[in-house]
Amino acid sequence: MVGRATPTRGNLPAELSSFIGRRRELQEIKSALSAARLVTLVGPGGVGKTRLALRSATDLRRGIADGAWMVELASLRDAELVTKAVMTALGLRDELSGWPGSRLIEYVSSKQVLVVLDNCEHLLDASAVLAEALLREAPGMRILATSRQPLGVAGETVVQVGPLSVPDGDGRMAPDRLAQSEAIALLLERAREAGAGFEVTPHNQDAVVELARRLDGIPLAIELAAVRLRTLGVDQLVERLNDRFHLLVGGSRTAAPRHQTLEGTIAWSHDLLAHDDRAVLRRMSVFPGSFSLEAAERVARAGDKTPLVVLDSLTNLVDRSFLIRAGTSGRARFRLHESMREFALLRLIEADEEAVTRDAHLSFYADLCRFTELDLAEPGDLTKLASLDELDLEADNIRAALRRCLADPEGADLGLAMAAGLGQYWRTRAVSEGGHWMVALLGRRGRDDAVRCRALFARIGLAVTQGDHRAGLEAAAEAAPIARRLKADALLIGILANQAALEVLAGDLSAARATSAEATALAAQPGDDMSFIAAAQSEAFVAFLDGDFMRMRDVGLAAAARCRERGELFMLSTHLTSAGMGALMLGDHTIAEAALIEALRASLVIDDRHGLVLRMQMLASSAATAGNGQRAARLLGSSEMLRLDIGAPISPFTRALVENAQGQAKAGLGEDRYKKFFDEGAHLDREGAVALALGDKTTPATGRTLDKPGGPLGKREQEVAQLIADGLSNKEIASRLFLSERTVETHVYNILNKLGFSSRVNIASWVSSKD
């Protein structure tokens, strides 16, 4: 089922400054999106394509059932990661095997979404292929792309984005009329925001018009100029602009004139910076995405004998619109506009600082990655959770660092060390991407066998998650002898535990039992909790296959107790699930419910979406077996909604439980009542589904009591009802609200049910009676 939408679904960033002009373009884009499902905004860098796309999507999102979503591609350099970027933006985890595009297609196939693909030009082929596949398989999807050239996909509508309007120069205009020009209006507004106190007067209007024209109406250039009005007069700006353009006339004659103008504008602004600020700016160009203050300080000081005061320079660069401050109020992050990054990188190369700066960038992110999937020495406390969230933010920088390792003949060991540290992150948040990097990195031969063994361990864990027993067993065959030779018993236990799971997947149960037994024997050392926790995973797995559910329960409970002592949340949910499954198969619902609910809470803390579905399915089975058919049906409905949301297949370990729960609930409730309660669960949002699983009576999102029918109309239903009263057909309503006809039909059906009516005439009469 499709999750219920609200008017705020999506991830569109808030606009931090006022939006000026572009009325014609906005209307053109909206009209284009009502007629075509792929619209591409095409224009030169700095012309405002991203801002225009964001405003268009913001204006339209209230009419899109499943939200409007921003996918930023500017920081990507690998074509194979375009699909991952879309998945990440939509909140879809890369945690299963196979081509990630197939899961993305399955996820969006039944949804009504608008996706903004921003900055496609450097990944044009990959963007075009993905867009075509998504539009072919997802009839309710629309894509708004920005690029310096069209994607070239069938059915694409191209909207050219030109500069802002400037005065035409035919005769003299009054200052208030000049201010209505988009370019001058933007200059005035940004100057006001910068505290310049600038306005157009009869004395300066000639200079203002010349400035707007010489900047060609390009928004980025105008915004940079506006900041300078705090310290320079408009005549001085024009004078400097003339000087800089004269200096840049000898550039490439094949480059777009506007691009030359933008480069000239950045150049003269750059030359006004202090020496240290210029040094920091050019060194920030090695960051492909956003970056933290800590990263900036390390990288900016690379190779300097005299330490820079980096924070002061960052502040100056933000004030002067060279850097953009991003992130939350708690932890600031920074980023460069794409055109600014390209300009700064040229300055870095000219200064002969590129190599040392990129080395500092690599060093910082190699250090950041130094925690492992299963830390065999330290507790897995909440610091790990914070680290995973930080790695999400730093994904673009980590990719750049890994690419540098691959490009450097001496970078094999450092790249493998990073891979070893990224194991847990890749397993939970980027499975296919992790596999991509692992293949590339393990293909290089370094000098440090211990590092290679840790990286192989991470590869084995990924293979378990992917269900790729061939690749996993191949890695285990190389890793286990190295671990034995190095006498790294703790690492060997982890390798063997995962190897046993892979052998089960390969159908070699006798090998799995032998491997698990070896892991368990090695882990029998006093006080070695983490080794016991690792080995217990395969022991519980084998117990399940042997039908020894008592051993499965007891092993799971014992390992869970040690996980609690060490704060190891990543394995706690796994072992509690084993305990819950074993107890459930033994008919002990008290232990099963307690273990599964605690496992579910741990899943929420570590944001394990696949595990959340699995545990809800098991809770449904427990409720059905205990005779609570209503709870079972609702949990089955909500778990199915969450499963479809993340694009996950039904787990082979819960398939039989789900089928039995369905049969038991239907037998107790009857087909019609089962469907009613199943649909109630399926119509909950994620928060409501979790509240249901935890035993809450109402959903936190709506406060609606589950035992009561649907209440008054929602806001979207009220809009549809009003349009029905206005005499519009479903097709006309769909066009007006930017919905599909199927979605409108669903709204009409819900309105009739909620109001107890049987026809559209009844709805129209009801609306009229309320006026």
Extended strand count: 8
Unreliable stretches covering 5 or more consecutive residues: 1-7, 243-261, 372-386, 697-711
Radius of gyration: 30 Å
The largest sheet, given as strand count, sense and whether it forms a barrel, is: 5 strands, parallel
Tell me the strand order in the biggest sheet. Answer: 2-3-4-1-5
Broad shape: flat
- State which percent range the strand residues make up: 5-15%
Overall residue-averaged pLDDT value: 83
State the share of residues found in helices, binned by percent. 55-70%
**Classification by helices and strands:** mainly alpha
Q: Which oligomerization state do the chains in this entry correspond to? A: single chain
**Count of individual helical segments:** 38
Distance between the termini: 35 Å
List the main descriptive attributes of the protein structure presented here.
771 residues; mainly alpha; 8 strands; 63% helix; disordered N terminus
Q: In words, what does this structure look like?
A:
It is built from 38 helices and 8 strands. The strands form 2 sheets. It has a 5-stranded parallel beta sheet, with helices on both faces. It has a 3-stranded antiparallel beta sheet with strand order 6-8-7. Helices cover 63% and strands 5% of the residues. It is mainly alpha-helical. Helix 19 packs antiparallel against helix 21, helix 20 packs parallel to helix 22 and helix 31 packs across helix 32. The N terminus is likely disordered. It is flat and about 90 Å long. A hairpin with a 4-residue loop joins strand 7 and strand 8.
